[in-house]
Amino acid sequence: MSALLETKDVTIRFGGLVAVNLLNLTVNDGEIVAIIGPNGAGKTTAFNLITGVYAPTEGDIIFDGIKINGKRPDQIAKMGIARTFQNIRLFKDLTVLENVLIATHLNVKTDFFSSVLHMPYAMKEEKKMKEFACSFLEETGLIEHKDDIASSLPYGLQRRLEIARALATRPKILLLDEPAAGMNPKESVDLTEFIREIRDKFHLTIILIEHHMQLVMDISDKIQVLEYGRTIARGIPFEIQNNPAVIKAYLGEEEIN
Amino acid sequence: MDKKKVHIILDIVAIAALIGFMFWANASFNPYNKRIFNTCCIYAICALSMNMVNGFTGLFSLGQPGFMAIGAYVTAIFTVSTADKVSIYKIIPISDFMANLSAPFPVALILGGVAAAVFAFLIGFPVLRLRGDYLAIATLGFSEIIRICITNMQGVTNGPTGINRIPSHINMWVSLLILAVIVIFTLAMMRTTYGRALLAIREDEVAAQAMGINLFKHKMLAFVLSGFMAGIGGGMLASLVGAIGPDQFKFTVAYEILLMVVLGGQGSVSGSIAGAFIVRIALEKLRFLDEPIPALGYPGIGGMRMVVFSALLMLVIILWRKGIFGNKELSWEGIGGFFKLIGSIFHRSPKKEVSE
Ligand SMILES: Nc1ncnc2c1ncn2[C@@H]1O[C@H](COP(=O)(O)OP(=O)(O)OP(=O)(O)O)[C@@H](O)[C@H]1O
Ligand SMILES: [Mg+2]
């Protein structure tokens, strides 16, 4: 079986800095893959490469059998890759519902003038999109906040909203950049459960960047460890936990025990 | 009665009041005041044009004078009679083709809007790739280039002399009607997926693009619509004033419109309209500052009203950064909230005891 997403020797340089160096990442359909590594290892940059924010200096990114490096982020989103951001990037001044509605944009077929004239067909589609958006808000437990301004939500819910918004683009693969950042242990246990739930419900493949080791070890099928842009280890959680190079680079003695 | 019904009734009352006001004003305003009203409506349209790009899409464009000039000249050329055009173009005679161009005012106005929109589309390709201040500089440059072209294309625009004897088709009803159409269009558009995409771009370009929004296409949409609206505003101005020349479309016009949009609140249709009316009326009412006031020994300094006016605006913007409406719209809930606030100031509840 061929991989859903594959990066082949992907490298990006910012001036003299090689932020991602010969990254080879293979993600199969339905897997949850974690990318871990110390600060500045190039994890977020890897996401930015996959989603088209940056074009790789070298190497290829293949999604669903198609080469996607060089495509714009909106084209890549359209093909079925959605993401969340490390520093939450909601549409802050808009309501929760509007945030999710914007993500349904990809599926809107009505042309500009029919929409503006509120033609019956356009209204029907708008109504359908609203229902669709609301279904994601229900799924993520945000429905009672649908008319709140996004920036007024508590931090944890903002993270959830970002996931809801990403889901509303109907992705095949979801990239989560530190979804548990700033969460307490109870919240991150809930999040683990939630990620599994959406994976099953929406038949997703997930790539996850996370510093929270418990979550990573619980949820991942595979883990890839980066340091200074290079892959220093890859394997199943058990292998990673006991890999001396990883322990040295990242985990630290106390977290293992 | 539920809230929705109350609001519909209030809407009807408000529209009736507006129509009543129009009948009254039409009968009792002197020509000077009517002209102020018409100018307010025209600038409100120009402010809505700028708000489309600056307020909704979060770009910073100052191309309005250029688009207005294009709309004004196209409208003028299509509405001035052939005989008049032949006699106006003295230095380089007008070509037969141009002299014979003629269309009824509504058609000429729309042609002006379309011409401005076409220019917006063409310059959109290079300039919409720029960000922030660079876009502002490029669009301001565009306005100046248009003005200089108009000054020098003697055979087409009659150069620095401009075009006069433009028949007037603007009255209070026409101004209000065109403004209303543009307001309804804008409000309707902002409720569609296309309008929301513009807001998303304003809020966060990176996130918008990650949600599949084609940034360039949507910025272009806003820019072309904005050009069209400014073109309509320019055409109306030509018809109201009766004479146009390149000096009417200096870059200072862009600042004036920017002040309206910022004062009203960027991203608010209500704000753009309120801003336009406040700025235009204030500029008229402060005119006495340019004239001498003998009783105070004030000699009258030309341009003083602009100084005072700009200072007032600076104050407003420093103290009240989001403008009158922020990025919200006028709503009955908002008005209700405002009166509740006023009420609570006058009927303070007895002081609560401080318990620590
Ligand atoms: N646009 C850019 N220009 C220059 N350098 C960049 C750019 N983006 C990232 N970098 C650099 O690339 C390196 C990797 O950054 P990246 O954000 O990918 O790290 P990370 O693994 O996500 O770290 P963290 O755990 O702190 O989020 C860093 O040294 C960063 O400064
Ligand atoms: Mg990061």
Mean pLDDT of chain B: 89
Written as H for each helix and E for each strand, in order along the chain, the element string of chain A is EEEHEEHEHHHHEHEHEEHHH
Taking the sheet with the most strands of chain B, its summary is:
none
Which outline of chain B best applies?
Answer: globular
What's the total count of β strands of chain B? 0
What brief labels describe this structure?
heterodimer; A: 257 residues; alpha/beta; 6-stranded mixed β-sheet; 4-stranded antiparallel β-sheet; 10 strands; 23% strand; globular; disordered C terminus; B: 356 residues; mainly alpha; 71% helix; 0% strand; binds adenosine-5'-triphosphate; binds magnesium ion
Structural description of this entry:
The complex is a heterodimer of chains A (about 260) and B (about 350). Chain A is an alpha/beta fold and about 260 residues long. Helix content of chain A is about 40%, strand content about 25%. Chain A is built from eleven helices and ten strands. In chain A, the strands form two sheets. In chain A, strands 6-7-8-3-9-10 form a six-stranded mixed beta sheet, with helices on both faces. A four-stranded antiparallel beta sheet of chain A has the order 2-1-4-5, with helices on one face. Mean pLDDT of chain A is about 90; it is low at about 255. Chain B has about 350 residues and is mainly alpha-helical. Chain B has 16 helices and no strands. The radius of gyration of chain B is 22 Å and the shape is globular. Chain B starts with a helix and ends in a 10-residue tail after the last helix. The interface of A and B includes residues 89, 104, 108 and 129 of A. The structure holds adenosine-5'-triphosphate (ATP) and magnesium ion. Adenosine-5'-triphosphate (ATP) binds near residues 19, 43 and 44 of chain A. Adenosine-5'-triphosphate binds near residues 19 and 43 of chain A.
